[in-house]
Amino acid sequence: MASQESGYKMDGFDLVEIEMFALESSDLDIDCNGSADLMSLLLDRMSVDHTRMCGLATHTRTGKRVFPHCWLELPGGFIVDVRLQKWLGDRDDIPHGVFDKCDCSIVYQGDIDPRERMSMEEIHELAGIGKDFDGIQI
Questions:
Q1: Which of 31, 32, 45, 127 shows the smallest number of beta carbons within 10 Å?
Q2: CA neighbor of 117 nearest in space, from 29, 52, 44, 56
């Protein structure tokens, strides 16, 4: 996970900073599509290249699958995903936050998410957030 590599930078962006935003967003009551869209909006504001993905996530140790599932891919093989634990359990071997795709117990299979990305207002409405919400600060 990025948190183990404090200050680690990849292609000009700080993985720890991105993970902080991801973990903060994981407290919101939204599913993987809303979480991925929220993080995508934040990464755009930070000018961080990323790809919104949708497909299947398979836990290699148990064979359990999550479909459909949405996540983000960053340059260098990093994944941003804060919803797998909702479906596969809050266990140490289920990645959460920002992590290396090659160094985790999940196999991701999918394509670029064909959905139109939700706006911040739509995400707030989906999460039941009022207008007084300060948001995730960047």
A1: 45
A2: 52
Domain segments of the chain as ranges: 31-127
Q: What residues have CB less than 8 Å from 109, skipping those under 6 apart?
A: 55, 56, 57, 58
Q: Are 70 and 52 in contact (CB under 8 A)?
A: yes
- Residue among 33, 17, 41, 31 at smallest CA distance from 97: 17
Q: Render pLDDT for 13-65 as a digit per residue (tens, 0 to 9).
A: 789 999 999 999 888 889 999 999 999 999 999 999 999 999 999 999 999 99
What is the rounded distance in angstroms from the CA atom of residue 94 to the CA atom of residue 60?
A: 10
What's this model's pTM, rounded to 2 decimal places? Answer: 0.84
Q: Give the integer Cα–Cα distance in Å for 130 and 127.
A: 9
